[in-house]
Design goal:
The chain is mainly alpha-helical and about 180 residues long. It has a domain at about 40-135. About 45% of the residues lie in helices and about 10% in strands. Strands 1-2 form a two-stranded antiparallel ribbon. The relative contact order is 0.13.
Length: about 180
């Protein structure tokens, strides 16, 4: 009989208790808005943008030969603007009896993705051309963060629970 009131009190306490929420840890900001990338970043970004544009253009040309009779297939052979011009002519060719809505929608989706890829490559090239840089010697050099010296012994006391009613102290060592 003694357990019933204890269980009732425990259930009431759990029902009315609000959860304790800890604050989310804040990650330290280690960026310096006055620090620019080295000049090599400009060249890397220009080359990456050109590669992206060329790859997506190659895919568009491949689409134009995959569906040569489709409306707008010749437009896909024009770099960057071609996919957007081909989107204006979506539909079925007159000499294609097996053309379905699925094929038309698939071509439109692939053409749109291709156009976005080509425009993204051009945007990367523009970003590379306009990217502000600074020489490495002018950049601040940060010392690497070290938690402890190499080869140093570190000891610290650590509390711990020992059994049901006991408390102890231990020593934690890092070496």
């Amino acid at each position: 009989m003694r357990t019933a009131p204890a269980a009732l009190l425990t259930a009431a306490a759990l029902a009315f208790a609000s959860p304790v929420l800890a604050d989310e840890p804040v990650r330290p900001d280690r960026s310096d808005p006055g620090e620019y990338p080295p000049p090599e970043a400009r060249v890397n970004l220009l080359v990456a943008g050109a590669g992206i544009t060329a790859a997506w253009y190659g895919i568009a040309v491949g689409f134009s030969y995959l569906w040569p009779g489709a409306p707008g297939a010749d437009d896909l052979r024009i770099p960057v603007a071609g996919p957007w011009m081909a989107l204006a002519d979506t539909g079925c060719a007159e000499d294609s009896p097996g053309c379905s809505t699925f094929t038309v929608v698939l071509r439109a989706i692939l053409t749109t993705i291709d156009g976005v890829g080509q425009v993204g490559g051009v945007a990367a090239m523009i970003e590379g051309a306009l990217l502000p840089t600074q020489e490495r010697s002018k950049q601040r050099r940060r010392a690497p963060v070290r938690l402890r010296r190499e080869g140093a012994l570190e000891l610290r006391p650590v509390p711990y629970a020992a059994g049901q009613d006991g408390v102890g102290i231990g020593i934690l060592g890092v070496f």
